[in-house]
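CATEGORY: protein folding

GOAL: derive structure tokens
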Amino acid sequence: MKIMMSAGEVSGDLHGERLARAVLEQAPDTELIGFGGARMERAGVKLFRNFADYNVMGVWEVIKNLRRILRLLDDLTAYMEEERPDLLVLIDYPDFNWRLAKRAKKLGIPVFSYIPPSAWAWRKGRAKKCAALADTFVAIFPHELPVYEAAGANISFLGNPLVDTVKAEIPEAEARAFFGIAPGDHAVLLMPGSRRQEITMLLPAMLEAAKLLAAKRPGTKFFLPVAAALYEPLIERLVAEHGAEVQLTHENRYALMGLADVAAAASGTVVMEAALMGLPCVSLYRLAPLNYMIGRMLVHVEHFTLPNILLGETIQPELLQDEVEPQRIAHELSRLYRGEGLRDETCAKLREACRRLGPPGAAGRVAAKILEAAHDKRHSGE
């Protein structure tokens, strides 16, 4: 059995790695091929292309790289036609992956969508278009189901893989020694994201906020887990330019989250990971002005971070666009230090949000569904 996977971002690569391992555990003879990153490759996927060579963010950046992206689409289509997989598994990365899905449909290759486009938030008409292209959908959040069900999609929620994977890598005592955080110390994490655009848009304000907090709350220790080694020189340069006392870290990220008081974080999966480790976040989202103007016209949501969305209320602060400024970030962070009443209330709500992610074992359940879909194709005679 041959299954092709396509994931074009860091988070997709992480989900793809989990799925690949689960698929091969259940069906070791399965051949996994496709488009993804280093994690998927280590898990056993034979990569035709690595997404790191194509990863861009924002309207203008996509336009500049459009020719290369279209060429990639053609190359992957030719590869798919040559390999004739039993199933194409799309993992997030909607704008590209659904173009690939159209090509697969023409080739008679069934499509399995894992983490479908967020039609619940914007462009709800996408759900109907996607339902016409994919045979099976699996969402990782329960609030994504209704709009796809209304469009006639075969969609299910089988839990969220973060429940299994977000665990402290080392015991607490060992982590405290590793990071130099004693009981009673205050630690704040800066997590500006894994993309260049996120780092340049968010990190300067985070660093200035750290300086304000260092003056207001002496003794606070600041850590920055490096999400993408490729951009570490950029991070180091920005830290030096702003003169903030920040320690860059590369290991035991979840253990560090378990020790910290609070984090300033780019909106995304990392905010949900932090919630699972009991760490409140001040979530930041900032785009170039053109991208933001386009987004305001298309996106209509009350919240933009996952814990807040899961409960439909503001559990923890969200700072958008012009609100992403040092004084506001520092103020919101200081309210969530250990010992502050708001922190206890926030953590209780975060635990409730995490329960909405379902029980452990999601990757295995999704892998079983993928194998079932591929098996059905192989024995359908199509």
